[in-house]
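Feature request, filed as a ticket because there's no other form

It would be nice if the structure record came with a short human-readable summary line next to the C-alpha cells. Right now we just get the raw output. Example of a typical job, pasted below so the devs can see what we mean:
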Amino acid sequence: MQRLAVELSAIPPEGISRAFTSTGVDLGIGASELPVVQPVEMECRFYKVNHEVVVQGSLRSALYLTCSRCAEEFEKPLSVALDAVYLAMDELSSARANELEEGEAEVYAYVDQVIEIAAMVRDKLLLAIPQQPHCMVGCKGLCPSCGVNRNVVSCLCGEARLGSPFEALKELRARGRDEE
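Raw output as currently delivered:
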C-alpha cells in the first residue's frame, strides 16, 4: 500500500504536486460499506502557509451502486475535488481552526510534521455517494403493479391513477353534509 502522506519539510514555498493511488480497503472502506471497483487515483498539490498546509486536487475512481429506481447494480465513475486545510494537532482547537470552519473549509490535523490525506480522501469518497443513485439519466424504474424493470421490458400493466389520499376525507365530509 502506498502511504498517502507528505513530510512537512518536503513542501517548498511554491508548493509540491504528488500523485497517489490507493484502494478502498487501504482507505479503510469495507467492500460492504462502499464497493470501490477501481483504484482511487489522486492528484494533489500541497501548499505551506506558515504552519498550515493547504491541499487541493482531485480524485478519480468508480463505485458499484444499486439504482434507486430499478434496483439494478451499475458502475458509477467518480470524480471528486479535494480541498482541505491541515493544522498542527495542537492548533486544532485554536481560533484559526474555528475561523476556517466558519468559512466552510474542511480542517484536518497533522501529527509529527506529516500530512496524511487518507482520512480526507475517505471522507470525500463517502460524501460523494449519491443519496438516490440512478443507473442512467432516464431510468424508468420498476413497474409498481408487476415489478418488472421498465428499462428492459415494456409491461402491459395499465398504471392505475392513484387517487389523492384526501379522497376518503372528502367522502366523509360529503356524508356529513347529507346527514345534516
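Something like this underneath would help us a lot:
The two ends are 80 Å apart (CA to CA).
The beta strands are 5-7, 16-22, 40-49, 52-66, 73-88, 107-110, 114-116.
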